[in-house]
Amino acid sequence: MLPFQQVVKDDFAAVNQLIIDQLHSDVGLVENIGHYLVEAGGKRLRPLLVMLAAKSLGYTGKQHLDLAAIIEFIHTATLLHDDVVDMSQLRRGRPTANAQWGNAPSVLVGDFLYSRAFQMMVAIGSMDVMAILSDTTNTIAEGEVQQLVNAKDPNVTEENYFQVIDKKTAILFSAACEVGGVIAGANTRQREALRHYGSHVGIAFQLVDDALDYTGDAATLGKNVGDDLAEGKPTLPLIHAMRTGTRAQAELVANTIRTGDASQLHAILEVVKATGGMDYTLQAARRQVDQALSQLQTLPDNAYSQAMRQLAEFSLARTY
Questions:
Q1: Domain tally for the chain?
Q2: Average pLDDT for residues 32-53, to the nearest whole number?
Q3: Which of 100, 117, 225, 232 has the fewest other C-beta atoms within 10 Å?
Q4: How many CB atoms lie within 10 A of CB 204?
Q5: pTM of the entire structure?
Q6: How far apart are CA 159 and CA 162, in angstroms?
Q7: Cα(278)–Cα(313) distance, rounded to whole angstroms?
């Protein structure tokens, strides 16, 4: 368990149990796939942020546990759908659900998780929470579609790239923090700070994720290195390489994005290194983390807000 998870370790265990309990279905395949996903583990950063945000503001109830499970269900549903769209074969070191059971069951169980999340939201009975999370799921879907549109297009700009990761990834980090604040009775300023903190952490997380696709290894990452390249995703290391490299380097990267030719991975790595694409991406992530940390000044200084500081730094320093 990571240090910033320790402060809510009992709640963390309770959320894991709640997730398993809420996966109950009369249809065996739903439970089989659901349990397969849960047992794969994961960092659980998004549900963790719900707990830390609520606790940092002195929350003593139990609804943060339900919200943490809701956030994890939404996240897992997006992963199920994402893996089908990307035809991914490996996640968290194991075959993806679509590789194991096929595309149709993966999509449908993703739908089940979305609807279970909204059932649990209704039980909480907060219109603020419903508004935040319904807007969030809608925005994630937009981001996924935009990413699909951008695939194999080497003309995607840095601005457009950031718009996609803001919608696809950062929005759920942001929502996790804000709903934690809502149930804890956060004032307007605190809610805004939590929302921005989560957004900046989410963007940093995705930037590092995109860098790790070229610098990590499959055993540590739990997914195949070079997947983004094979899917023709124009991520920031590649956008920077095309913008600053020689004509030949830019053309190599652009053609590889168009074709999704993963056999060019080594050559692309050399171009990314030569143009400083990795440093550029990690420096951008560092700026996001610094902006996230500045938002924490609005919260009380306690073990939970300090854990949020550690989590932000982890999003930058992680290797998986």
A1: 1
A2: 88
A3: 100
A4: 29
A5: 0.93
A6: 5
A7: 18
